[in-house]
């Protein structure tokens, strides 16, 4: 199988499936000397994991990561103080599947002859044949996005050192749209939402805050703990603090279920989604991704344009459209309306608008980069649908019996955020290298 890698300078390769032993990310290009912990990575993973509220699938997968390679196991010399820091070699992050019981596998076995409309199940069967990993949709399951979140967190850590912040949030759900929010405010809201989720997540508190998994433990020691956790998933989940909407709004200033910077809009989104889900259907929406601090000139021309590269977020399952800036609305604008005019103030270039989404000619302008993803409703629904028997081609009727998400949008924003970070860091490495080369040539160094 090809197609499971992205990037040239910061390169990520992923593997695994929904009901295999687990999933893995291999990351090349991580600079040495960084302290990146499993607790931090899990802090992002818990944003996309299922079973947190009524907007997500009831699957109870905790998404606990293990850093397998890429960090020092001890000080390189006595007293060096570089134990557990990244060492510049490829970083491997494993995410074992812990909630994969036979009752759920049997549900897929009972329905795998009849491909689910809207899923990859028919096309993947035609590509890979009878050995296609159809249990839980394999690598075509949304489960694989945990690998993107894990590796993208690492990318965000590096970008932060370079002054670039990447975040995402739910812009629209079930036809309810979040009004425009100033980006710094939206960033703070997203950070507050993440803090709230960490504070209320029982695995974050029980496994990491209480030190059940630590950096100084060997891989096999961690696996022994994971074997215990697999038997304790329900009991750990039962320790979760109640998500009281009013209390969370007062303490954190966010909605208790949805990462949307306008709490009132978030509440209307949830109501609209719940109403449709109660009828057995699912809903889609928009996720907005913003990058703050990207330097002017970031990106490459022609085929590797930065906006084209960000368009690779179409690779996220359920994403059916990507737009940058004004996006498809430009068709309704004249040139004078869509152009982002500029002027100078105190030696700085100021743009009057940002219809280009911070990118022109494939290069960043220095403005905020703004990208939106159109996300379709969850294909697995509790409504009868027409399908076929993929072995006999007989016409069949199908009603979903597997665990499902009423919407994917509420869990997709961290995937978009972290994949955008991977793409931007890949370009940042090239940009910084090119500018360093340019500087040396202009100064005549090396002659």
Q: Your description of this structure?
A:
This protein has 447 residues and is an alpha+beta fold. The chain has one domain: Chorismate synthase AroC (Chorismate synthase, AroC fold), CATH 3.60.150.10. Helices cover 36% and strands 17% of the residues. The protein contains 12 helices and 16 strands. A 5-stranded antiparallel sheet has the order 1-2-3-5-4, with helices on one face. The protein has a 5-stranded antiparallel sheet with strand order 7-6-8-14-9. The radius of gyration is 23 Å and the shape is globular. The mean pLDDT is 91.
What keywords describe this structure?
447 residues, alpha+beta, Chorismate synthase, AroC fold, five-stranded antiparallel β-sheet
SSE topology:
Blueprint: E1 5-6, E2 11-16, E3 22-28, H1 38-48, E4 66-69, E5 91-96, H2 102-111, H3 121-128, H4 145-161, E6 165-173, E7 176-177, H5 183-200, H6 202-209, H7 219-237, H8 245-252, H9 263-278, E8 285-292, H10 306-310, E9 319-324, H11 335-338, E10 342-345, E11 348-351, E12 359-360, E13 363-364, E14 369-375, E15 385-388, E16 395-398, H12 409-443
Antiparallel strand pairs: 1-2, 2-3, 3-5, 4-5, 6-7, 6-8, 8-14, 9-14, 10-11, 12-13, 15-16
